[in-house]
Write a structure and sequence with these properties.
This protein has two domains: 84 residues, lambda repressor-like DNA-binding domains (434 Repressor (Amino-terminal Domain)); 155 residues, Lipocalin (Beta Barrel). The chain has nine helices and nine strands. It has an eight-stranded antiparallel beta barrel with strand order 1-2-3-4-5-6-7-8. The longest helix has 13 residues.
């Protein structure tokens, strides 16, 4: 009975569009597969169901209601827009958001992020990251102090970033923006963990230096997993910029964030292992 309700309710939502074909294009779902949903022949996969519910602005539980009750609920809401077909660029951004749902839960939790400082040559930055799931998508918060620990008694400046985490072709992509001034954007590409547990994630990041004329730069980056629950205050107290030979920076970590451009490649690359 619920499956029949689902098919009828999906058809009702599509009635707000000029055609089923247009709804399929905007949903980025194959028309032939979508017809099976409408006929009740098959049920959408978990991923497609989330995609459909997000697109139409409904909950999965609502999709299983008796059609008459479902129609009453929808009629009380703002009318579903019949917007112009999404552009390829818009669909690309939509796919990025959808791919965020594919990030496994084992990556969620807290990390230290290590990389050679863009602003202070010879220093290693340690920042604090939380990776979490909200509304089905995976996001992260990154807190970075401008705090040369061998010179400054306290942080001179604090940068807070908010970002989206996606999983595409076995690589984690992170797109983050500085939250206050919104004038810094960073992209990070990380190798996944090839074991059942997450220890370290290695990759490359690109950004601009906020203190050196906004010069574009790239560097190796390493995320070290701290756990699903940590003492946030104590973790933040350990952040800042450290001289590369400081005892606070483990030699193994330092070796894994060294930036190397070989004569054979002429570009900065990293492997899963140092």
């Amino acid at each position: 009975m619920d499956e029949n309700h689902l098919a009828k309710n999906l058809g009702y939502l599509c009635s707000y569009y000029p055609s089923i074909a247009e709804a399929c294009r905007k949903l980025c779902i194959n028309r032939q597969q979508f017809n099976k949903y409408l006929s009740g022949q098959t049920r959408p996969s978990r991923r497609n169901m989330r995609q459909i519910c997000d697109f139409f602005g409904v909950e999965e539980a609502e999709m299983l209601l008796p059609p008459a009750r479902f129609a009453e609920i929808i009629q009380l809401r703002p009318r579903v827009e019949t917007r112009a077909p999404a552009s390829p660029e818009t669909r690309a951004l939509t796919r990025l958001l959808q791919s965020s749902r594919e990030v496994p839960d084992r990556y969620l939790g807290y990390y230290f992020r290590y990389f050679y400082s863009f602003a202070f040559p010879g220093y290693v930055t340690r920042s604090f990251i939380r990776m979490y799931r909200a509304n089905g998508h995976v996001y992260w918060k990154n807190i970075e102090f401008v705090w040369r620990r061998d010179r400054d008694r306290r942080p001179r400046q604090v940068f807070k970033y908010a970002g989206l985490v996606t999983l595409i072709a076995e690589r984690l992509y992170v797109f983050e923006e500085e939250e206050v001034l919104k004038n810094l954007v960073t992209q990070t590409i990380l190798y996944p963990s090839y074991t059942s547990w997450v220890g370290q994630l290695r990759g490359i990041q690109t950004a601009t230096s906020s203190l050196r004329g906004r010069q574009p730069a790239a560097s190796s980056v390493l995320l070290v997993y701290l756990g699903a629950s940590v003492n946030i205050r104590r973790s933040l107290e350990r952040c800042g910029q450290f001289p590369e030979d400081a005892p606070e920076i483990d030699p193994d970590i330092r070796a894994r964030i060294v930036n190397r451009i070989t004569k054979s490649t002429h570009v900065l690359t990293v492997t899963p292992e140092a």
